[in-house]
Amino acid sequence: VQLVESGGGMVQPGGSLRLSCAASGFAFSRSYMSWVRQAPGKEPEWVSGISTGGRSIYYADSVKGRFTISRDDAKGTLNLQMISLNPEDTALYYCTTGTGKRGQGTQVTVSS
What we know:
This protein is mostly beta strands and 112 residues long. 0% of the residues lie in helices and 49% in strands.
């Protein structure tokens, strides 16, 4: 299993970012996938999840209405479109499989 996140960076409050997770080595199209984030000194926080085929999508209350999860099974990618970012969104974001495998993550920093 290999999960490689990209798309992080530093943005100002109110800005946007699009994260991607390139998946390989397992049956991505048959896997429930999630995004999780961890801010310094805090416990990991589940952000969003998407079922196989994108039939069911879930969001944490803290990101609902601002983040959009999607998947491209043909390309083996999981995406997270983030808008209206605020400093509380600063964290290391990583994608996870339904069995708990995760990538190294991509850092998102929201600061003026």
